[in-house]
Write a structure and sequence with these properties.
With 131 residues, the chain is mainly alpha-helical. 65% of the residues lie in helices and 0% in strands.
């Protein structure tokens, strides 16, 4: 009878776990400082590849949730900056805001397209029968 062996997964070593945990904390702090730009955060932490960040992000739910919190904080910061510019009378900021947040009031760009065709093409089109 053949002996089948089940492969056991190796438990992670405590030092590796500790280093990963420290890297994640450093990355989160750097991510806040870099306004969510992953490459810059990795560089600040001495992590050579963004693959490490995405490995943590894709495999650690808690880390992913904290990254999402950072992203939301960055959006809040940018919104605040935009509103500050609007209050200061910056026309471009005002237009941008209205185009994105005021669409329901008609502040949206409308693209109009016109098509000119020859008389011959019009005859062909109107003479077509749909089967």
């Amino acid at each position: 009878m053949e002996k089948t062996t089940k492969r056991k997964t190796k438990p992670k070593r405590p030092l590796v776990e500790k280093r990963m945990s420290e890297n994640k904390e450093k990355l989160l702090m750097a991510l806040k400082e870099c306004l969510g730009i992953v490459t810059m955060a990795c560089e600040m932490c001495g992590i050579k590849s963004t693959n490490t960040f995405y490995l943590y992000y894709n495999n650690d739910k808690e880390f992913r949730e904290k990254v999402e919190e950072v992203k939301e904080t960055v959006i809040d910061f940018v919104e605040h900056s935009l509103l500050t510019q609007i209050k200061a009378g910056e026309t471009t900021a005002t237009i941008f805001y209205l185009k994105t947040k005021g669409k329901h009031r008609g502040y949206a760009e409308v693209n109009r397209t016109s098509l000119e065709i020859s008389e011959e093409t019009a005859k062909v089109i109107t003479g077509m029968q749909i089967k």
